[in-house]
C-alpha cells in the first residue's frame, strides 16, 4: 500500500514538474520582451523627468523676462508721459517768451515815438525862436515877468513829463528783459531735461528690444522642450500600454498552462488511483489463489521459482530491498548535482540521479559507477519492449541520456529528480514519457 501511494505521489509530482517547465518555456519569451519594454520605459521616464525639469526652468525664465519687460514698459510709459509734460511746458514757455518779445517790441516802439515827439518839440522851439534859439533863449525871450514865469514853467513841465515817461518805459523794458531772461533760463533747463528724458527713453527701448529678443529665444526653447515632453510622454504611454499588454498575455498564458496542469494532475491522480485499485484487486486475487491451491503451490514452488528467475533480470528479485532502503528518502531528500558520493551526502539525502542509482545497487551488493555515461555500459542493452523491473532506464534531459532511474514496472521508475529528490515517477505520459527514447540497460 505504501509503495502504491508513493507511485501516485511520484506521478502527480512528475506532472507538476512538466507543468512548471511548460509555464517557464511558454512565458519566458513574453517575460523577456516585457523586461525589455520595462527597461525602455524606465529610460524614457528618466528622460521625461529631465525634460520636465528643463521645461519648468524655461517657463520660469520666460516669466522672469516677461516681468522685466513689464517693468520696462511701465518705466517707459512714465518717462514718455514726463517727456510729453516737459514738451507742454516748453511750448508754454516759448509762447510766453514770444509774448514778452511782442511787449518789448511795443515798448521800444513807444520809446521811439516819444523820442520822435521830443525831437519834434525841440525843432518847434527852434523854428519859433530861430535857428540859434536855445532853451535859455526861449526863457529869456519872455515879454515881461509873467511871460517869463509861464515859459519857464511850461518848458520844465514838458521836460519832466517826457523824462518820467521815458524812465517808466525803460523800467518796463528792464523788467521785461529780466522776465525774458528768466523764462529763457527755464526754457534751457526744460530743453536739457527733455533731452535727458529722450535719451533715457531710447535706452529703455533698446533694453526692451533686447529683452524681447531673449523672450523670443526662451519661448522657442520652451516650445522645443514642450514638444520633447509631449513626445516622451507619448512614448511612455505607448510603452506602458505594451507592458500592460504583455502582462495580460503572460497572465493569460500562465492561467492556460495552470489549467492544463491541473487537468493533467487530475488525470494522473485518477490513473494512479485506478492503478491502486487494480493492484489491490490483484493482491486479493493472488491471496485467494494461494489459499485454495496451497498444496499445489508448495509442491511446484521450485519449478515456478526457476521459471520466474529465467524471465526476470538479476536485480528484480532484490528490487524490494532497494525500495525498502529508499523509503527513508521519499519526501526527505534533495537533488544536488554530484551528490550521493560521500557518507555526508547519503546521510543527509543529497543525491543526483546517477549517484542515487549507484547507492541503490550497493544496497543489494552490486557496484555501479556513479555517472550516467558509465552506467550506460554497466550491463546489457535491451529493447524497451523487453525491459523488466530492476533495469536502468535513461532519459534525454539537459543532454542525451542525461537522467537515469530504476524501472519498477507498470510504467513507473525510481530515481532522484531535480523537482522531488528521491521519488517514484511515471514514464508512460507527460514529461518523462517525452524524454524516454527507449534506452534500457540490464545490470547482471
From TrEMBL:
Region (Disordered): 258-317
Keyword terms, alphabetized: Coiled coil, Hydrolase, Protease, Signal, Thiol protease
Residue ranges the record marks as coiled coil: 27-128
Listed Acidic residues bias regions: 260-279
Compositionally biased tracts (Low complexity): 280-317
Leader sequence segment: none
Span of domain NlpC/P60: 316-443
Pfam family, one: CC_PcsB
UniProt record, GO biological process: proteolysis
GO molecular-function term, one example from the UniProt record: cysteine-type peptidase activity
Domain of life: Bacteria
Entries under PANTHER family matching the protein: MUREIN DD-ENDOPEPTIDASE MEPH-RELATED
Family as reported in the entry's similarity comment: Belongs to the peptidase C40 family.
Protein name, entry field: Peptidoglycan DL-endopeptidase CwlO
Protein species of origin: Salisediminibacterium beveridgei
Amino acid at each position: 500500500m505504501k509503495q502504491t501511494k508513493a507511485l501516485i505521489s511520484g506521478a502527480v509530482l512528475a506532472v507538476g514538474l512538466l507543468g512548471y517547465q511548460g509555464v517557464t518555456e511558454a512565458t519566458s519569451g513574453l517575460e523577456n520582451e516585457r523586461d525589455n519594454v520595462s527597461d525602455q520605459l524606465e529610460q524614457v521616464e528618466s528622460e521625461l523627468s529631465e525634460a520636465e525639469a528643463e521645461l519648468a526652468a524655461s517657463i520660469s525664465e520666460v516669466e522672469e523676462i516677461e516681468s522685466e519687460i513689464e517693468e520696462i514698459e511701465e518705466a517707459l510709459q512714465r518717462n514718455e508721459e514726463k517727456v510729453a509734460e516737459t514738451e507742454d511746458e516748453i511750448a508754454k514757455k516759448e509762447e510766453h517768451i514770444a509774448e514778452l518779445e511782442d511787449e518789448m517790441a511795443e515798448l521800444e516802439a513807444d520809446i521811439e515815438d516819444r523820442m520822435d515827439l521830443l525831437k519834434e518839440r525841440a525843432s518847434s522851439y527852434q523854428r519859433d525862436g530861430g535857428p540859434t534859439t536855445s532853451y535859455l533863449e526861449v526863457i529869456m525871450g519872455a515879454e515881461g515877468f509873467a511871460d517869463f514865469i509861464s515859459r519857464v514853467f511850461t518848458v520844465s513841465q514838458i521836460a519832466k513829463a517826457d523824462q518820467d515817461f521815458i524812465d517808466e518805459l525803460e523800467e518796463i523794458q528792464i523788467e521785461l528783459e529780466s522776465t525774458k531772461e528768466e523764462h529763457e533760463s527755464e526754457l534751457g533747463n526744460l530743453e536739457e531735461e527733455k533731452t535727458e528724458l529722450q535719451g533715457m527713453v531710447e535706452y529703455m527701448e533698446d533694453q526692451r528690444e533686447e529683452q524681447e529678443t531673449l523672450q523670443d529665444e526662451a519661448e522657442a526653447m520652451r516650445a522645443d522642450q514642450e514638444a520633447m515632453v509631449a513626445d516622451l510622454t507619448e512614448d511612455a504611454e505607448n510603452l506602458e500600454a505594451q507592458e500592460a499588454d504583455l502582462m495580460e498575455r503572460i497572465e493569460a498564458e500562465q492561467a492556460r498552462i495552470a489549467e492544463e496542469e491541473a487537468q493533467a494532475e487530475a488525470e494522473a491522480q485518477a490513473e494512479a488511483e485506478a492503478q491502486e485499485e487494480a493492484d489491490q484487486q490483484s493482491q486479493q486475487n493472488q491471496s485467494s489463489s494461494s489459499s485454495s491451491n496451497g498444496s499445489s503451490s508448495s509442491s511446484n514452488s521450485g519449478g515456478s521459482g526457476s521459471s520466474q528467475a529465467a524471465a526476470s533480470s538479476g536485480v528484480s528479485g532484490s528490487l524490494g530491498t532497494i525500495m525498502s532502503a529508499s523509503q527513508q528518502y521519499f519526501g526527505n531528500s534533495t537533488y544536488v548535482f554530484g551528490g550521493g558520493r560521500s557518507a555526508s551526502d547519503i546521510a543527509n539525502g543529497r543525491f543526483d540521479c546517477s549517484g542515487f542509482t549507484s547507492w541503490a545497487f550497493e544496497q543489494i551488493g552490486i557496484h555501479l559507477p556513479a555517472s550516467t555515461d558509465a552506467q550506460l555500459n554497466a550491463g546489457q542493452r535491451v529493447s524497451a519492449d523487453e525491459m523488466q523491473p530492476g533495469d536502468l532506464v535513461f532519459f534525454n534531459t539537459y543532454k542525451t541520456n542525461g537522467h537515469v532511474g530504476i524501472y519498477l514496472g507498470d510504467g513507473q521508475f525510481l530515481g532522484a529528480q531535480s523537482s522531488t529528490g528521491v521519488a517514484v515517477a511515471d514514464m508512460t505520459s507527460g514529461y518523462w514519457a517525452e524524454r524516454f527514447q527507449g534506452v534500457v540497460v540490464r545490470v547482471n
